[in-house]
Write a structure and sequence with these properties.
heterodimer; A: 489 residues; Arc Repressor Mutant, subunit A; 3 domains; nine-stranded mixed sheet; 15 helices; 14 strands; B: alpha/beta; Amidase signature (AS) enzymes; eleven-stranded mixed sheet; EC 6.3.5.7 (chain B)
């Protein structure tokens, strides 16, 4: 991460920390690519298998084995680069040398000064634009389980178990610029990144399974002064933890500076249970990785045709999907219904309901309410949902009745809304019949009515209950409450 | 027993025609091994039983009228840094002692498919680091021509195996001269092909950007034949050139009429006078055979050795880091993981390997990279440019293979710098990625063989073999 000494991005007054401090955050997000095989060998890239099943001479770093680059991994990495507005460039691989038992070759094949994707940016739903320095390809390590000892770490353990299934799984490391000023922005950035990665099919981006991992570089300074010394926070395993870890770390640094101390550049470990970070290693202990060009691989130089092919195949990104739903429904792009529909990839389905003649707002609400488990393309014909939204919009069905019909349509994988409503005896009552029922209910419970008229809103429940009972649920609750309010005057 | 021919091509023809069985050929070679191996120590492992099974299978194929490959029944020795499935592959290092790879190197697969019969794994300087085979953890190999002398290295075992008649052909690997120099010292033919012509998959890496597998043989034609079999694109090696194996055997007897042979006017000195005399004789012979001798200049050649001893150790320091005691090979237990790494590597690697790992680690370190490794890469580019320029006016270049004939044991073992100088004429082609071969051309001091080196531009193997063939013919005529 390259820190510019003075940033043009400054926190707004409400984003400032007490004492005039501002936090400066850059994120390094690692995502496992959704390829069938590993980055440099034909072994399956699969999570959750028996240990040491998905291995081969390349994965284990056996003497004489050589890496061969997975083209699909390059393509998925290019999708990420294009989605993040990066420049896709001629690139090479480097070896990052360090000893660790789960690093089979004692070096990681990564990219160094010539990454595949460079100089991009990501615009968040809130409108903030975060720079993306690079998004490069590299291989994952194996997984160590340290047995015995108190900490679950290698030091002090009795022995360690190695699982090399994950070794060689393709990763893209997405490095942001230090443009983030609040923990809220950090969470929003990771959340948006996750939506993008899912949308473009590059990764399943599950933080809980480790297919998306996030390190945060945190420093504090006073605006107009150079950036402070940064600390890198590791072991952040959820978006919520990311926000907590950043807030904790910024406070910790401010406390140190306020009490006359200085921040040491170091790597710190987030302990989610304790809610604090502690030192993992200081800069003095940092490895010299002795990067040098990987002689076993050749230059990757994606042709313009290939880049354009990948670009053309990109689906609409979450931002475009949210904008589309906003156009359609008038709902804000940050509203829960819009965000949920886009996260689930059901925006196209909402549009299909509208295209089939459905009411846009009701289409969005029905889809977000009824299809939580359905995936991006619910199996119900969009026209069936469209017909239901019209029945409700035209007051042929009450909201309650519509919900019942919707449940039945979903359960049956489709159906004629009008026929289902008729079979259930649902028919819209005309307003004059409801007016009569309101008057009858008022007459039957004058005490409740008096209280309601005196401003006790809760008292309305007794009157409404009587009307619903008398109408067997056919009266539209919204119509009932409108009549009651007009009667109250 | 029928007379066993000495060349691979004659053996293959005799076996394929039924004149000899693969088993007969094999037993004759095993008998020679039995007779002299205790003196020579060419092998880390003789795979007699596996070889007999392989030979019998070929004989069965022939008896049944099934087609056989171009090397049917040809015994071959394989340098012990190439992986052989289920057969110990040690790199002559204690750190890999007992390790049995679960796969074959691509060259081994191709040789088997061609009908060659592997007789054993040959000794080398540990991890191919050395020029005398004295750096083997399992004892030095002796030169069959004079057992008080080294066979050269690092592929000393493979060179000695062919020189002693243990097998008509063998495979070595050449990072800075490790095929050509022992070929010269043992009086046999040795070829380092163009980088990327032969797959490195399954070759235990010393310096990945320089390593290349090639053959030893008693004749230039046999060397061409083996090169044809092992060359050609391999999807398992990303640096493998994406084209089919070239036809080379035909070039050997084509003659050199009209060819332009380069004489390097600014060749670094240091060659023994007898060696220089043989080089002059080689030029005369080629001129007599119809070639034109053209003076060329390679001004950066003097920096090649220094560049090599930064680049090769740098890559080696990374390539050999995987020998950490975690997954295979030697493990020396200690109080924690870092101590285990240290104890394992201290016990498992010999002095020369440690020296190069330290040198390479230093060259790549933060703050030193630009001054050492970075600069060496620039020299490497300069050398390649020098060659490109020279090859505008010549087809091949001639120079000595080794400045010296075979030296005595211990003569250089304690002086790494003088040992490194053995590779002064061979290293430049590795840096450039070009092909080169050593052809025996008479004798020098103590009546020991002198090798003349034929260099050619990338993928210039055909021109190289033409000149090699002509030298061989001239040497035969002269002696």
């Amino acid at each position: 991460m390259s820190d510019s000494p003075l940033s043009s991005i400054v926190a707004t007054p409400e984003q400032m920390l007490p004492g005039g401090w501002e936090m400066v955050v850059g994120l390094e997000v690692h995502v496992e690519l959704a390829t069938a095989t590993k980055l440099f060998s034909g072994s399956p890239n699969r999570f959750g298998d028996e240990p040491n099943i998905n291995i081969d001479p390349v994965t284990l770093g056996l003497p004489g084995a050589l890496p061969v680059l997975n083209k699909k991994a390059v393509e998925l990495a290019m999708r990420i680069g294009l989605a993040l507005n990066c420049r896709i460039q001629r690139c090479i691989f480097h070896r990052k040398n360090y000893f660790y038992p789960d690093q089979p070759k004692a070096y990681q094949i990564s990219q160094y000064d010539l990454p595949l994707n460079a100089d991009g940016h990501l615009e968040l739903p809130s409108g903030v634009v975060i720079g993306v320095e690079r998004a490069h390809l590299e291989e994952d390590t194996g997984k160590s389980t340290h047995v015995g000892g108190a900490t679950g770490r290698i030091h002090g353990s009795d022995y360690s178990l190695m699982d090399f299934n994950r070794a060689g799984v393709p990763l893209v490391e997405i490095v942001s610029r230090p443009d983030i000023r609040t923990s809220e922005q950090a969470r929003e950035y990771v959340s948006e990144l996750r939506s993008i990665l899912e949308a473009i099919g590059a990764s399943d981006a599950k933080m809980e399974e480790g297919s998306m991992r996030c390190d945060a570089n945190v420093s504090v300074h006073k605006p107009g002064t150079p950036f402070g010394t940064r600390c890198e926070i590791k072991n952040v395993n959820s978006i919520r933890a990311l926000g907590r870890a950043i807030d904790y770390e910024a406070r910790r640094q401010i406390d140190i500076i306020d009490s006359g101390g200085v921040i040491r550049q170091e790597t710190r470990h987030w302990d989610d249970a304790e809610g604090r970070t502690h030192t993992l290693r200081t800069k003095e202990d940092a490895d010299d990785y002795r990067y040098f060009p990987e002689p076993d691989l050749v230059t990757v130089d994606p042709s313009q045709e290939w880049i354009e092919e990948v670009r053309a195949a990109l689906p609409p990104l979450p931002a475009a999907r949210r904008a589309m739903l906003h156009e359609l429904t008038g709902y804000d792009i940050r509203s829960e219904a819009v965000v949920v529909a886009v996260e689930r990839g059901q925006h196209e389905y909402v549009k299909a309901v509208v295209d089939a003649g459905g009411d846009p707002v009701k289409a969005l609400i029905y889809v977000t309410q009824a299809f939580a488990e359905a995936g991006a393309s619910p199996a119900v014909p969009a026209a069936d949902i469209a017909a239901l939204t019209i029945l409700e919009r035209d007051n042929k069905l009450s909201a309650t009745q519509a919900k019942t019909v919707l449940a039945e349509i979903v359960a049956n994988g489709g159906g004629d809304a009008a026929a289902i409503a008729a079979a259930k005896g649902f028919e819209a009552m005309d307003t004059s019949a409801v007016e009569t029922m309101v008057d009858e209910a008022i007459a039957a419970d004058p005490d409740a009515w008096a209280k309601y008229c005196a401003g006790e809103e809760k008292a309305a429940g007794a009157i409404v209950g009587r009307i619903m009972k008398a109408s067997k649920g056919k009266a539209d609750g919204k119509v009932v409450s409108a009549i009651m309010q007009s009667r109250r005057g | 027993m029928a007379t066993i021919p000495t060349t691979a091509s004659e053996i293959a023809a005799a076996v394929a025609s039924g004149a000899l069985t693969a088993r007969e050929v094999l037993e004759a070679h095993l008998a020679r091994i039995q007779e002299r191996e205790a003196d020579i120590h060419a092998f880390n492992l003789v795979t007699a039983d596996a070889a007999r099974a392989q030979a019998d299978a070929i004989d069965a194929d022939i008896a049944a009228g099934r087609p056989v490959g171009p090397l049917a029944g040809v015994p071959i020795a394989i340098k012990d840094n190439m992986c052989t499935h289920g057969i110990e592959t040690t790199c002559s290092s204690k750190i890999l002692e007992g390790w049995k790879p679960p796969y074959d190197a691509t060259v081994v697969t191709r040789l088997r498919a061609a009908g060659a019969v592997m007789v054993g794994k040959t000794n080398l300087d540990e991890f191919a680091m050395g020029s005398s085979t004295e750096n083997s953890a399992f004892g030095a190999t002796r030169n069959p021509l004079d057992t008080s002398r080294v066979p050269g290295g690092s592929s000393g075992g493979s060179a000695a195996a062919v020189a002693a008649g243990f097998s008509p052909v063998s495979l070595g690997s050449d990072t800075g001269g490790s095929i050509r120099q022992p070929a010269a010292l043992c009086g046999v033919v040795g070829v380092k092909p163009t980088y990327g012509l032969v797959s490195r998959y399954g070759l235990v890496a010393y310096a990945s950007s320089l390593d290349q597998i090639g053959p030893f043989a008693t004749t230039v034609a046999d060397a061409a034949l083996i090169t044809e079999v092992i060359a050609g694109h391999d999807v398992m090696d990303s640096t493998s050139i994406p084209q089919d194996a070239p036809s080379l055997v035909g070039a050997v007897s084509q003659g050199v009429t009209g060819m332009r042979i380069g004489r390097v006017v600014d060749l670094p000195g240091g060659a023994e006078p007898e060696v220089s005399a043989r080089l002059d004789a080689a030029f005369e012979a080629l001129a007599a055979a119809g070639a034109t001798i053209v003076d060329v200049t390679l001004p950066s050649l003097g920096y090649a050795l220094t560049a090599y001893y930064l680049i090769a150790p740098a890559e080696a320091s990374s390539n050999l880091a995987r020998f950490d005691g975690v997954r295979y090979g030697l493990r020396v237990n200690a109080v924690d993981t870092n101590a285990m790494y240290g104890a394992t590597r201290a016990a498992g690697f010999g002095d020369e390997v440690k020296r190069r790992i330290m040198l390479g680690t230093y060259a790549l370190s933060a703050g030193y990279y630009d001054a050492y490794y970075g600069k060496a890469l620039k020299v490497r580019r300069l050398i390649a440019q020098d060659f490109d320029k020279a090859y505008e006016s010549v087809d091949t270049i001639l120079m000595p293979t080794s400045p010296l004939v075979a030296f005595k044991f211990g003569e250089k073992a304690d002086d790494p710098m003088s040992m490194y100088l053995c590779d002064i004429y061979t290293i430049p082609t590795n840096l450039a990625g070009h092909p080169a071969m050593s052809v025996p051309f008479g004798t020098g001091a103590h009546g020991l063989p002198v090798g003349i080196q034929v260099l050619a531009p990338a993928l210039g193997e055909a021109a190289m073999f033409r000149v090699g063939g002509a030298l061989e013919a001239a040497a035969g005529g002269a002696q």
